[in-house]
Amino acid sequence: MENPSTFSQKPAWLRVKAPVSKEYHATHDLMRLSKLNTVCEEAACPNIGECWAKKHATIMILGSVCTRACAFCNIKTGRPDLLDPHEPERVAAALAQLNLAHVVITSVDRDDLPDGGAEHFAQTIGAIRKTSPKTTIEVLTPDFLRKEGALEIVVKARPDVYNHNLETVPRLYRTVRPGARYFHSLSLLKKVKDLDPSIFTKSGIMVGLGESKEEIFQVMDDLRSAEVDFMTIGQYLRPTPKHHEVMRFVDPEEFLEYERMARGKGFLMVSASPLTRSSYHAGDDFEKLKQARFQKLGA
Question: What is 17-298's CATH number?
Fold first, then answer.
């Protein structure tokens, strides 16, 4: 294992331009005016300039404070915000102004709520359907650990894509994602397919946390066993010195190897690159997903 102190500087392939465009600022102003949280800001996503310039934003519902403290995540943790009953309508109104073809809705973990926030997800999906019926909806949900019936509430609202990230390989869960359980997350993804096979399922991991290639390949096999359609793989970037160290920066050529391997294992879609994130190019990827399913069914 390489010494993480070697990687104090990001390689060239991870450098992005600072956001300066008019379109970026227009999206920023709309988010503030609508009093909406975005994971783009809260998680310090490196792609925010590109995505917001295209009016692509990942909306984060259920407040801005998480009940868990994952070692990779920059979102605040602590006592969560009070649930805002009007948030679904505010989200829908803002998205109608953006006139999006595809939207991603995510949230903080809300272990304090009886259903983990599942009903709030369902209400947000319903509100968007009313104001923007042509917009396709992707949800990126928590694991709803120990929240009986929560998953069913979200699936019943029928998002077009159900995303739940494994984040890392099982060996690293204790240090990277201590509040979660790897096989629970896998079973959640499988259950989505069992409940509604028409919903695309999606999951992603970060690399550079200390995992091996063999462990990544095993995660691919596990996801395919859960009938997951789409896998994302991106480079972990350390948000602050308090977070998990970057053990190595993965070369773009290695990401190409992961993409080839994942496609060979049968995923309909794979996105693997240093800057890949769960919601990066989500709209374009959804169109590719639909085409891949059509081709598979016609084969």
Answer: 3.20.20.70
